[in-house]
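Customer ticket, subject: "Can you confirm the structure for CRYD protein?"

Message body: Hello, I'm evaluating your service for our small team and ran a test protein. I'd like someone to confirm that this is what the system normally returns, since I don't have a reference to compare against.
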Amino acid sequence: FDPRHYLGTHCFGFPKTGPHRLRFLLESVKDLRETLKKKGSTLVVRRGKPEDVVRDLITQLGSVSAVAFHEEVREIL
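Agent reply: Thanks for trying us out. I re-ran your input and got the following:
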């Protein structure tokens, strides 16, 4: 979870993620973790800036051969 997603928007200061959306997101992640656990896997969940969290996970795991990600589309103003 990137804390920057829960700050106000650049233009008007409205929250990017409101309470209902956050609750849905948390319930979805919990459900995904439970589903993966039933299949013998797990889900790693971290809070922080992705550029820091991913680096730390790679260091912790030690044997990472590839990392895939997507970049959020930003508004052009």
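A couple of notes from the result: The domain at 3-61 is CATH 3.40.50.620 (Rossmann fold). The helical segments are 19-38, 50-61. Feel free to reply with more questions.
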